[in-house]
Amino acid sequence: MSNNLLKGKKGIIFGALNSESIAWKVAEQAHAQGAEFVLTNAPIAMRMGEINNLAEATGAKVIPADATKMEDLEKLFTEAMEILGGKLDFVLHSIGMSVNVRKGKHYTELNYDWLEKGWDVSAVSFHKTLQTAHKLDAMNEWSSIVALTYMAAQRTFPDYNDMADNKAYLESIARSFGYHYGVDKKVRVNTISQSPTRTTAGSGVKGFDGFIEYAEKMSPLGNASALDCANYVITMFSDLTRMVTMQNLYHDGGFSNVGVSNAVMQKFMEE
Ligand SMILES: NC(=O)c1ccc[n+]([C@@H]2O[C@H](COP(=O)([O-])OP(=O)(O)OC[C@H]3O[C@@H](n4cnc5c(N)ncnc54)[C@H](O)[C@@H]3O)[C@@H](O)[C@H]2O)c1
């Protein structure tokens, strides 16, 4: 269904790896709502070429960029403005990776080279993206920049490991840069804190299967899907949310405000 909520809007979508990716769904929904955009991902993530199917389906161009490299980001924003014919109205940062999680390093024994790499990819890349857009004056007034995050930034989920710290840093960047970008250019910066979702990044977290079921039972509305998340992102890109900035917005079926649910209690009452 389309309400043309993004008609005439132009943007960049980071992080569509495969059809499970949240960014993939955002691209499909943005296209359905009338937006034009450039797709981007790290060159190494494009080896399988899946992103080309999405590009074809949404009429988008693909520009490879490692989001930790300033020269890649500068090229990306410059070329995106050329292709789309002007400044941008939205950017989605949908990027996350922890080497310590990937290699199964326990949080009490972190490898700090790996920590720095994961922090750069998952958190600092957001600052680099914002700084590049700001420097190139790439965003229209009232445009909207969204990054995806997880509630481990606020509460402890033991196996989320150093990604919890990366997400806390990411959310802080949204507030800090959001202040300056709002004052200078009326650009909005927010994070959306999404339910656990079966994607390549999500499934990489130890114990994910048990955890996603637990979250489902804890949330009054159940877990929010990747498609639900995409729809929320679209509202944040639209003019209907133009006064929302510097926020961390929970999109989790109510999980974040629940102490315990009857469904979970039931499990413990079973003999
Ligand atoms: N899946 C979940 O349970 C969940 C829950 C809350 C938040 N999130 C967040 O949603 C976002 C998207 O993740 P997803 O679940 O769709 O998984 P995904 O694996 O499909 O997406 C992660 C993306 O990050 C990209 N990436 C990694 N290194 C990069 C780099 N150097 N430069 C540019 N791109 C790079 C990957 O190529 C991939 O496309 C992440 O920030 C993730 O932390 C996911």
CATH superfamily: NAD(P)-binding Rossmann-like Domain
Structural class: alpha/beta
Mean pLDDT: 96
CATH architecture: 3-Layer(aba) Sandwich
What ligands does this structure carry? Answer: nicotinamide-adenine-dinucleotide
Query: What portion of residues is helical?
Result: 40-55%
Give the topology string: H per helix, E per strand. EHEHEHEHHEHEHHHEH
Strand content: 5-15%
Radius of gyration, rounded?
Answer: 18 Å
End-to-end span in angstroms? 47 Å
**Major beta sheet, specifics?**
7 strands, parallel
**Count of beta strands:** 7
Strand order of the largest sheet: 3-2-1-4-5-6-7
Describe the structure.
The chain is α/β, with parallel strands linked by helices and 271 residues long. 45% of the residues lie in helices and 15% in strands. It has ten helices and seven strands. It has a seven-stranded parallel sheet, sandwiched between helices. It starts with 9 loop residues before the first strand and ends with a helix. The chain binds nicotinamide-adenine-dinucleotide. Residues 14-15, 17, 21-23, 41-42, 45, 66-68, 94-97, 121, 148-150, 194, 196-197, 199-202 line the site of nicotinamide-adenine-dinucleotide.
Brief rundown of the structure:
It contains ten helices and seven strands. The chain has 271 residues and is of the alpha/beta class.
Properties at a glance:
seven-stranded parallel β-sheet, 10 helices, alpha/beta, single chain, globular, 271 residues, 45% helix, 7 strands, binds nicotinamide-adenine-dinucleotide, Rossmann fold
